[in-house]
């Protein structure tokens, strides 16, 4: 079975392999653009290691000091990855400037481009796997790593095309210019990774489409509920936390009210997977029909 830990270990192995290939490509050609590609691969290895550590921490069970678990560790990993991407972009800009001041012909360009292209193919296959399985496993660290590699694949393709153009035309100044453009692309990628991770650290609610589905599931999970209000959500890694207020007839026994809560909790877990839900039960005298989150009602009369 594919797990987040296995994918993280795989990213580390692939990262080392791609780094080796791109280093060979730079050694063969002396291209500043190919060197920038190799520099980004160093970041890939470091971020893959950070992601692996974060995933292992996030998998640790809840304890006395962390009663809600360690799921947010993956968001910290993604922030670190974004910061590393930005650092790589600045390093590449520095090298691009040096190359722009002193452009030079490239050695063994076609051999180097072939090796670099092989590294890009390997990266492309792996980033697709990371993004698909990262979303299935709801792992921010893996998804961030996958998008980082995707930006690497796109920039590598542009590098190969640009270096080839420089060789064919003799305009070797294209080499450092291309490296600078790669740096800008990487910088934008790093910024997106950081901002998306910060939303999780700040307890951002689940997307509106998912929230709408959740309201429907809660409203139809059990009969005899007068109202559900103050529905709140937040996500931390693969776990979603939900809390709401449940209004039931005051004549219900504690056991009956508890059974309705269990039915709602199970329905939400069946629909959304890894969910921790907390329900506050209120008698009908506390009904707040004007404060419901939606004006729609299903056949059972439950406002949600």
TrEMBL record:
Keyword entries, A-Z: Cell membrane, Membrane, Transmembrane, Transmembrane helix, Transport
The Cation efflux protein transmembrane domain, residue ranges: 11-202
Subcellular location: Cell membrane
UniProt xrefs under InterPro entries: Cation_efflux, Cation_efflux_CTD, Cation_efflux_CTD_sf, Cation_efflux_TM, Cation_efflux_TMD_sf, CDF_Transporter
GO CC, any one term: plasma membrane
Family matches, as Pfam families: Cation_efflux, ZT_dimer
Domain of life: Bacteria
GO biological process, one term: intracellular zinc ion homeostasis
Transmembrane segments: 7-29, 41-59, 71-93, 113-133, 153-174
GO MF annotation terms: cadmium ion transmembrane transporter activity; ferrous iron transmembrane transporter activity; zinc efflux antiporter activity
Primary location recorded for the protein, binned into one broad class: membrane
Name of the protein in its database record: Protein p34
Species of provenance: Pleomorphomonas diazotrophica
Origin organism lineage: Bacteria, Pseudomonadati, Pseudomonadota, Alphaproteobacteria, Hyphomicrobiales
């Amino acid at each position: 079975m594919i797990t987040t830990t296995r994918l993280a270990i795989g990213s580390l192995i692939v990262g080392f392999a791609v780094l080796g290939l791109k280093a060979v490509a730079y050694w063969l050609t002396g291209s500043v653009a190919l060197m920038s590609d190799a520099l980004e691969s160093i970041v890939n290895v470091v971020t893959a290691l950070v992601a692996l550590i974060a995933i292992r921490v996030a998998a640790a069970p809840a304890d006395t000091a962390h009663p809600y678990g360690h799921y947010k560790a993956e968001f910290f990993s993604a922030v670190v990855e974004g910061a590393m991407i930005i650092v790589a972009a600045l390093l590449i800009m520095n090298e691009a400037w040096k190359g722009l001041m002193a452009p030079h012909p490239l050695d063994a360009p076609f051999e180097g481009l072939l090796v670099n292209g092989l590294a890009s193919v390997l990266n492309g296959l792996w980033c697709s796997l990371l993004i698909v399985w990262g979303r299935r496993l709801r792992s921010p660290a893996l998804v961030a790593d996958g998008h980082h590699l995707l930006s690497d694949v796109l920039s590598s393709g542009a590098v190969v095309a640009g270096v080839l153009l420089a060789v064919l035309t003799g305009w070797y100044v294209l080499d450092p210019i291309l490296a600078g453009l790669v740096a800008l692309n990487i910088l934008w990628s790093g910024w997106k990774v950081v901002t998306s991770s910060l939303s999780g650290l700040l307890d951002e609610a689940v997307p509106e489409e998912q929230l709408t589905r959740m309201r429907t599931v809660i409203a139809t999970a059990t009969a005899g509920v007068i109202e559900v209000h103050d529905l709140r959500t937040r996500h931390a890694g693969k776990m979603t936390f939900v809390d709401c207020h449940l209004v039931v007839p005051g004549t219900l026994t504690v056991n009956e009210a508890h059974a309705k809560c269990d039915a709602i909790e199970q329905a939400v877990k069946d629909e959304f997977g890894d969910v921790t839900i907390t329900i506050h039960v209120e008698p009908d005298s506390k009904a707040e029909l004007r404060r419901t989150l939606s004006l729609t009602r299903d056949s059972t009369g439950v406002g949600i």
